[in-house]
Amino acid sequence: MGADALIRLEAHPRSVEKPGRGPSAARHLGPYDHQPAMGRGRRKRTTVRRARDGPIRERRVVALAAGLTPADIMANGFVKGIQEVGELFESGELFLPELMMSADAMAGATAVTNAALEGAAAEAKGRIVLGTVQGDVHDIGKAIVIAYLKANGYEVTDLGRDVPADVFISRAKEEHAEVIGMSALLTTTMEEQRKVIRTIKDEGLPYKTVVGGAPCTQRWADQIGADAYAEDASDGVKKIDALLGK
Fold first, then answer.
1. Residue 163: per-residue pLDDT
2. Could you tell me the fold of the domain covering 2-19+35-117?
3. What is the pLDDT of residues 57-115, one digit of tens each?
4. Is the model's pTM score more than 0.85?
5. What share of the chain in percent tops pLDDT 70?
6. 225-229, long-range: CB within 8 Å, 24+ apart, which pairs?
7. Which of 18, 145, 193, 228 could form a disulfide linkage to 239, CB 3.0–4.6 angstroms apart?
8. Among 47, 32, 31, 51, which Cα is nearest to 108's?
């Protein structure tokens, strides 16, 4: 439920409607135009407001300084938080501006944790290039995966969004990558994953391939010849570890 809300937000940030309300609600609702609700929703809205106003970057830095690993911060803090925000939006307890604010906070969290990982390991476990396929502009899930991979010792090159098939291949060559990761959040863009894998096989290239994203499944991965399917960020780390024998 929560993930679906975030996916819709990324795809159409100005057209996401609050469940149970018409389009005008999403269009005209200011950050706090609504009447304060009682109970759990009100507490969560207060938390989101404090997150906007408070020194969130400083809190992330403090968490790192306190000895929490980037993986702990992401898995037990921001990932769980963003999932709950999505669920609260689906249930009507949070509103569109708060959902967008939380998505921005999540992006900031991954930037800080990734920066903390630079130079942390003398030798990376492996090199990975990862991007969202052409025609797809979703980014939040990919950012989480990259943070997890870096936290687990991998060197990751973020290719960004809307990445053409040939760019996956060319950048893998440039970065001397061992694994190509492809995210697709729309059924209409899944075929781009197949294009990359077909090129790898046709040219006899050595790269391992991992696919993921909301519409992807193990069956789809088998169908297109991917080496692995990652259900989520944690599973992605496990699958890549297995592929590279780590």
1. 97
2. 1.10.1240
3. 565 566 666 777 777 777 777 777 777 877 787 788 888 787 777 777 777 777 777 67
4. no
5. 68
6. 225/197, 225/198, 225/201, 226/193, 226/197
7. 228
8. 51
How confident is the model over 167-196, as pLDDT tens digits? 999 999 999 999 999 999 999 999 999 999
E-strand ranges in the chain read: 127-133, 155-163, 179-183, 208-212, 228-230
- Quote the tokens at residue 155: 């060197």
Residue in the block written with tokens 């024998």:
245
What is the CATH architecture assignment of 127-244?
3-Layer(aba) Sandwich (3.40)
Which pLDDT belongs to residue 21?
A: 39
Do β-strands 179-183 and 155-163 pair in parallel, antiparallel, or remain unpaired? unpaired
192, two tokens = 């781009």
Evaluated on CA atoms 210, 214, 216, 217, the torsion sign reads positive
Q: What are the boundaries of each domain within the chain?
A: 2-19+35-117, 127-244
Length of the chain: 246
Taking CA atoms, 14 is separated from 9, 24, 114, 161, in Å, by 8, 11, 29, 19
